[in-house]
Specification:
The complex is a heterodimer of chains A (about 400) and B (about 200). Chain A is an all-alpha fold and about 400 residues long. Chain A has three domains: about 90 residues, no CATH class; about 100 residues, Helicase, Ruva Protein, domain 3 (Orthogonal Bundle); about 140 residues, Cyclin A, domain 1. Chain A is built from 21 helices and no strands. In chain A, helix 12 packs across helix 20 and helix 19 crosses helix 21. The two termini of chain A are about 30 Å apart. Chain B is of the alpha/beta class. Chain B has one domain: P-loop containing nucleotide triphosphate hydrolases (Rossmann fold), CATH 3.40.50.300. In chain B, strands 2-3-1-4-5-6 form a six-stranded mixed β-sheet, sandwiched between helices. In chain B, a hairpin with a 2-residue loop joins strand 2 and strand 3. Chain B is globular and about 45 Å long. The chains are: A mainly alpha (about 400), B alpha/beta (about 200). At the A-B interface, helix 8, helix 14 and helix 18 of A face strand 2 of B. Chain B: This is Rab-33. Chain B: One of its GO terms (molecular function) is GTPase activity.
Chain lengths: ~400, ~200
């Protein structure tokens, strides 16, 4: 119940219902929705204040090009609570996606520490003029080589829809989703669909509606993290990114990293996290869109930092788990229902500042390789664990405080 | 045990049916590899069955799923009887397995399951055809459905057959993990009664 501060602001509101889709924004939530206790109350108030601040901001700049205020929008998206309401997301996501943060080191993860220059070479070829995507007919789309696979996957997305969506509505959304995905794939003939990309497009469709979803998804496919996943083999893109998870862990939680390495856990437990921006494993709609807020406003590698923060958060269960690969794999694949999302995001952002992608992929990666090469004790300076745990405490308890602070910056 | 086959043939449903005793309500496309487990008592020996449920899409086939072929004791190939492509692609899956040392005359048992036999379809893969294919590749063929309740026992017996085979060949006791697993077994036998009760009801622990 705590989870429904807002419900998807769906494109169908004009088409089917003829009236505004019911958005249960936080201001509509009565006191009974809030768990008792001062912390929950503070959180609730903080969210409401943030909601008002975003509302004010959007009203003030109603006639401006929102792209000019991209920094403000990113702040809204990253700070606790995210964009709060799907009504705002529908407006802000297109702006964020048109101004994605590009990797700070020009190069992507695969070619930066990749000695065979095959993939580096392919980067140069990767810029054919993108095709105009609006003109393709449904028949054209059905002829696309991936149509069938997309159809199979989309038909299996029932559990991804929030409960307040009716069956008819869901059917229509599913029918819209297939051509939407294939249209995005048509942008570049070298795009290869992967299972999981449909989760991304579905989330965007639920929030933005069909028209905007196409441009948001296209931007993500062209300029975002998914560009690599769609163009290269998964081994050369996402798997390499996930290797960085161990590099991060070795510096934050060396003991945890050792456990995971000793059972040869690998990174497959987290495979779907960057591929779907966690929408595959996180079950609550509100948590999914909250993660999307942040990822749309941050470096394409942030999902890896979030993955690290999630693993660190699950430290106690990992250490308590049987030391065998299958059990650890299962433990980590299943995302706990109650995730302290704001704390995890805060930690992830903190980690990404502490170990920026450019250092992570070069210096730290090399240092990590040395650790792995000589199993005995390694002499890498680690971040005191307390620093991070403090962030968690600050995250949960102090979430509210930061909101109050926020409120002071933007007075009513 | 690793379960492989084309996308949307029902690998997840089959493994779910076996491990949890029911047909899952909504399944999604598997991304990467999922792990399920169930304990079975066979001839007074408790076997801990670990199923790796893999992604069907070709993009996941290579090194991602490949990682899990290591230490595999049995392979289950799945196709959809209403989908000819999924049957035709079986030879690719077999090749893929053989690349990882899981060959037909090896110690690793392999079985073939034709899923969704409850679905009426004009273009079904015929049993004869599938049987011929299975014979050629030295596998046992089963046609079943993870969905229909009447076939539930069948799914169960298919996997139990596989376990019997496994137990006879016992490759897992001689492999590197053997010792550890035996210890595990001793520990688990203590729980055997408890687990056996659960099995009667058709649920996993």
């Amino acid at each position: 119940m705590h989870s429904s501060f807002s419900e998807p602001n769906s494109p169908l509101k004009e088409v089917l219902l003829g009236e505004k889709w019911q958005t249960a924004s936080c201001s509509d939530i009565g006191a009974d929705y809030v768990k008792p206790g001062p912390l929950a109350k503070a959180k609730f108030t903080a969210l409401r204040n943030k909601r008002e601040a975003i509302d004010r901001f959007l009203k003030k700049h109603r006639n401006d090009d929102l792209g000019l205020y991209i920094e403000e929008l990113r702040d809204f998206a990253i700070s606790p609570g995210g964009l709060v309401d799907d009504e705002f997301r529908a407006i802000i996501w297109p702006v964020l996606s048109a101004n994605l943060v590009i990797n700070d080191d020009l190069d992507d993860v695969s070619s930066s520490y990749d000695s065979d220059f095959e993939s580096a070479q392919s980067d140069f070829e990767d810029s054919p003029p993108y095709e105009e995507i609006g003109e393709l007919t449904l028949e054209d789309l059905k002829g696309h080589k991936e149509w069938n696979q997309v159809e199979l996957d989309v038909h299996r997305t029932l559990s991804r829809f929030p409960p307040n969506i009716s069956d008819t509505h869901r059917d229509i959304l599913q029918t819209d989703l297939i051509p939407l995905i294939v249209r995005v794939l048509c942008i570049n003939p070298r795009f290869n669909y992967y299972q999981g990309f449909h989760d991304i497009c579905l989330t965007v469709l639920l929030v933005c509606g069909q028209q905007d979803a196409l441009s948001v998804c296209s931007n993500l496919a062209k300029n975002g993290a998914f560009n690599n996943y769609l163009l290269k083999t998964l081994e050369k893109s996402v798997v390499r990114e996930l290797d960085l998870l161990y590099v991060i862990l070795s510096r934050v939680e060396p003991s945890l990293e050792r456990v995971m390495r000793s059972v040869e856990l690998g990174t497959m437990f987290a495979l779907s996290w960057p591929l779907t921006w966690l929408s595959h494993s996180v079950k609550q709609y509100q948590q999914i869109v909250r993660f999307f807020d942040v990822f749309l406003a941050s470096s394409p590698l942030l999902p890896i930092y979030v993955a690290s923060a999630v693993v660190v958060y699950r430290r106690p269960s990992i250490l308590a788990c049987e030391r065998e690969m299958p059990f650890l794999h299962r433990l980590l694949t299943e995302m706990p229902h109650e995730l302290p999302i704001d704390a995890i995001i805060k930690d992830a952002v903190y980690l990404s500042r502490l170990m920026p992608p450019c250092l992570l992929k070069t210096k730290y990666m090399n240092e990590y390789r040395k650790i792995v090469a000589k199993p005995p004790r390694a002499a890498v300076k680690t971040i005191p664990r307390y620093a991070l745990q403090f962030m968690f405490v600050a995250g949960t308890v102090g979430a509210a405080a930061s909101f109050f602070f926020f409120k002071q910056i933007h007075p009513m | 045990v690793i379960i492989v086959g084309n996308a949307a043939v029902g690998k997840t449903c089959l493994s779910f049916r076996f491990c949890c005793g029911r047909f899952p309500e909504h399944t999604e496309a598997t991304i990467g590899v999922d792990f399920r487990e169930r304990s079975c008592a066979i001839e007074n020996e408790l076997l801990r069955v670990q199923l790796w449920d893999t992604a069907g899409q070709e993009r996941y086939r290579q090194s991602i799923v490949a990682h899990y072929y290591r230490n595999v004791n049995a392979v289950v190939f799945v196709y959809d009887v209403t989908c000819r492509d999924s049957f035709n692609d079986l030879s690719l899956w077999i090749k893929e397995c053989e690349k990882h040392g899981l060959v037909s005359d090896g110690e690793v048992p392999r079985i073939l399951i034709g899923n969704k036999c409850d679905v009426e379809c004009a273009n079904k893969v015929s049993t004869d055809e599938a049987q011929m294919f299975a014979d050629r590749n030295n596998m046992a063929l089963f046609e079943t459905s993870a969905k229909s309740a009447s076939e539930a026992d069948h799914v169960e017996s298919i996997f139990l057959t596989l376990l019997h085979k496994l137990q006879q060949s016992k490759p897992m006791h001689v492999q590197s993990q053997g010792e550890r697993q035996q210890k595990e077994q001793e520990r688990l036998i203590l729980k055997a009664n408890e687990a056996a009760n659960l099995e009667e009801q058709g649920f996993c622990c």
